[in-house]
Automatic annotation (TrEMBL):
This is Dipeptide ABC transporter ATP-binding protein. PROSITE patterns: ABC_TRANSPORTER_1, ABC_TRANSPORTER_2. PANTHER family: D,D-DIPEPTIDE TRANSPORT ATP-BINDING PROTEIN DDPF-RELATED (PTHR43776:SF7), TRANSPORT ATP-BINDING PROTEIN (PTHR43776). CDD domains: ABC_NikE_OppD_transporters. Pfam families: ABC_tran (PF00005), oligo_HPY (PF08352). GO terms for cellular component: plasma membrane. It comes from Sulfitobacter aestuariivivens. GO terms for biological process: peptide transport; transmembrane transport. Gene3D superfamilies: P-loop containing nucleotide triphosphate hydrolases. It is a peripheral membrane protein. Belongs to the ABC transporter superfamily. It is found in: Cell inner membrane. SUPFAM superfamilies: P-loop containing nucleoside triphosphate hydrolases (SSF52540).
């Protein structure tokens, strides 16, 4: 026991007071135990905001964040303490998130010590830390060193050991391999997958890199300008992307594209400001298919079968999909 049964984020209309550019609208997702869900999109699309809102680093003004069936959206500090043991974060830059003056053993032990005040349990911490370090590919000798004595990949292993220390159900990973060399990326991704299999962990995996997402995710949500525009099991999304934005992202990803022949949709124009959203479809200012209806009506996510949902008027007007 002790693992996550079900996490549900139904954060319809999350809008952060300040800065308001972090607005996320109508994003709804759920992650089951043992599942890896990726959120993809260009920088500024709101994927980190979703992650930080679930972790309660940002405050939602509306919506629900249900973990183990409990809505934690309005939990206070004391109520959040046990929740934080169920949900840990891993960051893009492990160096920035590790205290440079702390030894690795203290860094890894910190979330665990926050959770337990019982002397007997605290006495067992050093041995647990040694086991965790070994599990993520470090050794007992590393425990006494400082973060600057490690490579980027090793630092991410330290971050993972720290997250694992409290036996979480969900790990929220925000661009965890983006700062690493490609060869090291694969090692860290494989470690994360192995840990998922071993502990039944769920991940919310934030990335802008579609080849990374293809490697690790079971299902994928595509975000644009604070909206979820498409959501599907990985293989469905990569084989049959339906939203024009997803299709453009895939056609611009060489490693993914090489696997099959994907139509060319080249994005033009800039991402509009989240402060000044286009009327109707948020993507219409860059969409090659946009027509009048797209300016008048905001498309809602609709189920198109096989677990795939798409927010686009083309679903009801396939004759306009001319590519
Ligand atoms: Fe393009 Fe219209 Fe679909 Fe938006 S709703 S993605 S503008 S076709
Ligand atoms: Mg980000």
């Amino acid at each position: 026991g002790g693992l996550l049964d079900r996490l549900k984020l139904d954060a319809k209309g999350i809008r952060l007071e300040k800065p308001i550019v972090h607005a996320v609208n109508g994003v709804s997702l759920s992650i089951a135990q043992g599942e890896i869900m990726a959120l993809v999109g260009e920088s500024g699309c709101g994927k980190s905001t979703v992650a930080k809102t679930i972790a309660r680093i940002y405050e939602p003004t509306k919506g629900k964040i249900r973990i183990d069936g409990k809505d934690i959206a309005n939990f206070g500090f004391a109520q959040m303490l046990p929740v934080r043991a169920r949900m840990q974060m891993i960051f893009q830059d492990p160096y920035a998130s590790l205290n440079p003056r702390q030894r690795v053993r203290d860094i890894v032990a910190e979330p665990l010590l926050e959770q337990t005040k019982i002397a007997q349990e605290r006495a067992a911490v050093p041995e647990k830390i040694a086991r965790l370090l070994a599990r993520v590919g470090l050794n007992a000798e590393h425990a006494g060193r400082y973060p600057h004595q490690f490579s980027g990949g090793q630092r991410q292993r330290i971050g993972i050991a720290r997250a694992l220390s409290v036996t979480p159900g969900l790990i929220i990973a925000d661009e965890p391999v983006s700062a690493l060399d490609v060869s090291i990326q694969a090692q860290i991704l494989n470690l994360m997958k192995d840990l998922r299999d071993e502990f039944g962990l769920a991940y919310l995996f934030i990335s802008h890199d579609l080849s990374v997402v293809h490697h690790i995710a079971d299902k994928v949500g595509v975000m644009y300008l604070g909206f979820m525009v498409e959501n599907a099991p990985r293989d469905v999304l990569f084989a049959r992307p339906r939203h024009p934005y997803t299709r453009a992202l895939l056609s611009a990803a060489p490693s993914v594209k090489a696997k099959r022949d994907i139509e060319e949709i080249v994005l033009t124009g800039e991402v509009p400001s989240a402060l000044d959203l286009p009327s109707g479809c948020c993507f219409r200012t860059r969409c090659p298919f946009a027509w009048k209806k797209c300016a008048q009506e905001r498309p809602q996510l609709q189920d198109v079968g096989d677990g795939q949902s798409v927010a686009c008027h083309l679903i009801d007007a396939p004759e306009r999909d001319t590519r």
